[in-house]
Amino acid sequence: MTTVLLAHGAGAGQSHPVMQGWAGRLDVLGDVVPFEYDYMAAGKKAPQRLPALLKTHRQHLNAARAEHGEPVILVGKSMGGRVGCHLALEEPVACVVCLGYPLQSPKGTLRDQVLYDLRVPIFFVQGTRDRLCPLDTLADVRGRMTAPSGLHIVEDGDHSLIVAKRTLKATGTTQDDHDRAALAAIQAFVAEHVAG
Predict the structure, then answer these.
(1) I need a labelling partner for 8 at 20 to 30 A (CA). Which of 25, 27, 45, 140 fits?
(2) CA-CA distance, 40 to 15, in Å (whole number)?
(3) Which residues contact residue 10 at a Cβ distance below 8 angstroms, ignoring those fewer than 6 apart?
(4) Closest C-alpha to 60, from 93, 101, 21
């Protein structure tokens, strides 16, 4: 059975409705194991630095692997996806799924080196309104990556993949429709690249 280790983003933990929704949807892939970084569990707002985040992520990876087995897929919202990419450089995992990868910092610094170093398959789910990940920049980065990568675009989706209400109304769709389309794309990628 596949193990899905689910990491949250910088600003909201696993109790947030977006994270709760993904935890429920992703169970089609296997056993979903959500966890919180130490700062979030302690009720603090500011994320820790990368080494501390990596340490916590690794601890939960080892625990999930011991309890649920292989293969392991790292799924992360924003910061959780970025930390998962760094962890995948050091730990054997089957693939990484990023829900809104923060390719640019709020100050505009490009966070692309880890993607070039990555060797395991990675799948991006990105909104067209995500200011932290311009799609043209991501396309350039993906063209230079060695790891197999896939992309699902959420039309008019923001950094949390929430589609603007005007678009939902204009297209006669619901947020659930867009979430299920993203999940189907993730499933297809995992089926192609992950054994077991």
Answers:
(1) 140
(2) 11
(3) 47, 78, 79
(4) 93
Among 72, 184, 167, 158, residue whose Cα is nearest residue 121: 72
Residue ranges of the domains in the chain? Answer: 3-193
Q: How many CB atoms lie within 10 A of CB 17?
A: 9
Neighbours of 74 (CB within 10 A): 28
Structure tokens at 5: 């280790």
> What are the pLDDT digits (tens) for 3-38?
999 999 999 999 999 999 999 999 999 999 999 999
159-186 pLDDT, tens digit each: 999 999 999 999 999 999 999 999 999 9
What dotted CATH number matches 3-193? 3.40.50.1820
CB under 8 Å to 61, separation ≥6 — which residues? 5, 72, 74, 87, 91, 93
Sign of CA dihedral 19, 175, 121, 70: positive
What tens digit of pLDDT does each residue of 47-99 get? Answer: 999 999 999 999 999 999 999 999 999 999 999 999 999 999 999 999 999 99
CB–CB of 96/88 below 8 Å?
yes
> pTM of this prediction?
0.97
Residue found by looking up tokens 């959780």 in the block = 80
Going by C-alpha positions, the residue among 113, 121, 95, 5 that lies closest to residue 50 is: 113
CA R_g for the chain: 16
CA 35 to chain centre: 13
How far apart, in Å, are the Cα atoms of 134 and each of 64, 124, 157? 33, 12, 12
